[in-house]
Amino acid sequence: PVLDSTEMVINLAQYFFPKDFGPLWSFLARSAQRDHFGKVTGWEGVEPLMQQVASITLSRDPLIIRPEVPRRAKIRVLLAQNMKQRKVMGDQLTRLFALAGTRFEWSKKDLSSILSSIKELRLGLGEISHIVKESSSTPKQEYLRLLLDEVRYFSPKILIHTHFPELIEPLMALVTGAGYASLRVESQVQAGKIAEYQGSVVGFVTDEHLDCRVDSVDLVINYDLPWNKETITERRQVSSNSEKGHLTEFNLVVSGSIEERAMVVVETLPKLIGEWFDDPEEPVIEDPQALRNLIRKLAGRREERMSSSKMRKVEKTNSRERVISLKGIRDMGRPGTLGNERILAMGLPQKSMKKSIIWNGTSALPSLEGSTVLLNIQMIQSHDGPELALATLVNPANSHYMAFTPENLEMLGEKLKECAFIVSAGTDGPALEFLKQHLPGFDTPPPMFDFADLLREKAGEDVLFHDISEATLGKRMVWDENEIRRLYMGKRFTDLAEVGRSDLKVTWGLIAYIAREGRFFTRGPDGREEYQFPLDQMLPPEVFELMLTRQNL
Questions:
Q1: Which terminus of the chain has a smaller tally of CB atoms within 10 A, N or C?
Q2: Which CATH number is correct for 372-549, 3.30.470.20, 2.40.50.100, 3.30.420.10, 3.30.1050.10?
């Protein structure tokens, strides 16, 4: 094809053989044929140039170019998650990432549970009922419905690929409701019926039946992408294009989900991720550490995936706990595409900004009158006893955070006296006595619930609050008193505030879990030890109701 275009040959000769080509004006005066308007109508004397370009051109034998090879245009459609998917799946991914960073040994039961959780997350991208008990449409289903309406006019034959047989039934109901005939392709006989069908028809193929051949296909939709590179190639070998011309392939991907993250891992660890998650006959993984690293890459955010082999330091907590800016399509890091795909973004969220939670000494603070607040006190030991490094509190009713440095203890006391109820969170020490001793005018505080102290009374005084959160939720707080001291001595109050925010979030998740389940776990010599804890009998009714209704901060 290169040698068929004289203009292409001239451009290549000018680039590769500048000495033989000479100046462009000289070549045009010598070889260009022009009409009386001066427009170039032809060329003469370019045969030597063609021979030179042909010597460096790799051309295919025309005999091997078969007309039946599908001409395929590939389009990747990026779909934004809906609110239910973002909430449920975000919590699940955070829990999986934290669980991958724990120090516990994983049993075969734990490994099977993790693999099952990831499968449920993948299914939830295509059918919402797999993650929440309701029947609303997912972004993939909504886009599929729009696409079917758009292409109805030329009576297409469409092939939909999915890895999960569980998604076939709801998709067939959607296709039938859109006015198309639908058919499962599980044998070559059923594949032949699609090619012979007169009118609009949609065939469904799972990755278990890729040995069939479906001819005369106009449109291929990969409803979900396999986590095995060989399977992607096998899918494309199933269909051949119809007489109408091009075969168009749509790849539906939910932006920011485990599905999009897996596309990057498929390029870097294609064999491992394919065998572990897409091979139903593969036994349970015998190498838990390898699976831990893979879970970090799949479930972690971008900065965690880049350093998944290392334990996160407190400096990285900023980016972990803050509201991550959701970038537009031009700013986001795109994973490796499947060939020459075009990328189509469907309503990606805009960027979000975040302000500092540390009180600057002059700005107005929201009222806490009659509110229940969660309080975290970070203390360091000095020669004179415990010393406040930073105090962080949050109003769970509106998720409003505030942090106070040691210079603003008087304002901290004023805000706490407005509260109706205080829950001390994650403080390894007597929080109430410390507040009475250091806060001016805090002799008659509002009712206070020392959550960490009650857990220690139940499980033992030597049990650390961080170990309880890790054993119960799989979330490990990686900082200790030495790290807090280092940040405090360096006046790094912004990092201390992020540590406090993280502690509050983990503590609230632990309180919500215990309020819902009535139990918690600790680390023991033989694994996790369970303790029954009737939290509903210890909290006021209005506070307990808040725990049940606000699952996350």
A1: N
A2: 3.30.420.10
